[in-house]
Amino acid sequence: MFDLQEELAKLPHSPGVYLMHDKSDAIIYVGKAIDLNKRVHSYFRASTKKTAKIQKMVSLIDHFEYILTDSELEALVLENNLIKEHRPKYNTMLKDDKTYPYIKVTLGEEYPRVLFSRLMKKDKSKYFGPFTSAASVKDTIDLLCKLYKIRTCNRKITGQRAEEDFETGELPAGGADARNRACLNYHMKQCDAPCMGLISKEEYAQNVRKALDFLNGNYSAVLKELEQKMLEASENMEFEEAGRYRDLRSSVLAVAQKQKITDSDGEDKDVVALARDEEDAVVQVFFVRDGKLIGREHYYMTHVADHTEEEILGSFVKQFYAGTPYLPGTIMLCREIEDMALLEEWLSQRKGRRVRFVVPKIGGKEKLVELAARNAALVIGQDKERIRREAERTTGAVKEITDLIGIEHARRIEAYDISNISGYESVGSMIVFVDGKPRRSDYRKFKIKSVEGPNDYASMKEVLTRRFVHGLDEKADNKKNNKEDAYGSFTKFPDLLLMDGGRGQVNIALEVLEELHLSIPVCGMVKDDHHRTRGLYFANRELPIDVHSEGFKLITRVQDEAHRFAIEYHRSLRGKSSVKSVLDEISGVGPARRKALMRHFDSLSQIKAATVEELMEIPEINERCANEIYLYFHKE
């Protein structure tokens, strides 16, 4: 039994981390303190002023534990690790945990390559980044390999064999460092084949240096070179070659435009700014490398209601920079945060060099922070607009429909469709939309049992009857056994039935509901001669609907979904039926073996392609039967 007062009295006056648990032993909050005794006591002291969120958290605390550390810096690191591990409910959390792409130049290799990397390791390679778009990184790598003919293979090339072959002018006959012929990239003029000794180590190294210059932002030299080569090729009537240089030049210009000069000092820095409203907070980070803005990214913060901007920004800095593989020398913030000196010490230890926080007040640096803040505010505004549009498309569309037909609400909408080919394998589908969005967990399929031939009305009556009788029986059983209606079960009745058709389908639905003493609005989706929805049929009259409205678009989505679901089910039954009819013709294959084959293989073509040994993997199939099946499908 945890005695709160007794445990509080045991708390030491030392730095450390404390973990608050609820009754289920879940960790709901993790915090650090330079004095554990004072900090933890403050949560349970009546005189301490607390926010509503902290009061709620304290009311849920069943017990706590703590871990001692030798310093506040150690407590800071441990707190951050525990938050990332347990993701407590009452800690301000960074929602996403991404790794960002880098461009890696493998300078530790004799013939370096330019690679895509998600990790920045302590090796002999040189890294550029991080970038926020993996696609742009891959485009840049592809461009560099084409421009400077950097190899893309993973062959181990020491350079010794290659140099000897280059000097003699002979192609290598083979061996550890070479193969008998160059790869396709050489023939496409995208690689100088160092593996074949067709370029000296010094020339290749010069190409790598050019690639490094390019990554450092020196585009003018390569643009001038490409333009000159393009003109020379054009004058020599080599138009295909001129077109290749033109395309490469366009690619360089596209990459160059992605990096904008933001600072003349050429240092690496991150620019971090925050924007928030009553409910949300977004942190915007600009990544500046070698004085160039190489990308930006935004991050959502959760559980921010009762926190100040300084607290939110501080939580972001701790969590983000604990996980990022690269630390810049300077982190520019839009405002000061708690433990800023302590965080500088921690990050400097991680980097192995000094990391400093700067809160600029004037000049270009302050303008860059303002720009990041404006971008963060824009993200919040855009997301609210996206949410508004989504509401118009879903709940707003439902309201348009309910207003048109004159009912109060239609949170749950069900629609049905029948699918068959001349009455063969008739099936019915039931699809469900809740608040204007499909709820696929509630979809149901019906194989028509009582109707023969192509009778859609009778088939629809069977489907609706089975659906609602099942629901009523389930409700009665739940009531008898004092059970609640299960989520997604047939007991959830719709607020509106949408029938794929006009008066006929609506009357069938009303007939079923009347027989079962149910009162549910039924609306028909009436189509024109071109099979396009033109209006709704409700209460014995056709109601026109604006084809550009969100309500009309929702009706179309419902129709399409009901139709798709029915057709897919019908197609699957047809496929199984065709497999069944073929297998019935094979000697020794009865119902049990037929079912075993259909369970084991996905299709008839797989059964046809199976060997005798593969067929015998099925327990029900012996060697004799396997041979019969194999011979049936492979007879001449």
Provide a descriptive summary of the structure in words:
By secondary structure, this protein is of the alpha+beta class. It folds into 5 domains: 4-91, GIY-YIG endonuclease, CATH 3.40.1440.10; 102-217, no CATH class; 269-390, Nucleotidyltransferase, domain 5, CATH 3.30.420.10; 398-573, Nucleotidyltransferase, domain 5 (2-Layer Sandwich); 584-634, 5' to 3' exonuclease, C-terminal subdomain (DNA polymerase, domain 1). Helix content is 46%, strand content 18%. It has 21 helices and 21 strands. The strands form 4 sheets. Strands 14, 15, 16, 17, 18, 19, 20 and 21 form an 8-stranded mixed beta sheet that branches. Strands 4, 8, 9, 10, 11, 12 and 13 form a 7-stranded mixed beta sheet that branches. A hairpin with a 5-residue loop joins β1 (16-21) and β2 (27-33). α5 packs antiparallel against α10 (239-258) and α13 (363-393) packs parallel to α14 (395-405). The longest helix has 34 residues, at 550-583. Residues 161-178 and 258-262 have low confidence and may be disordered.
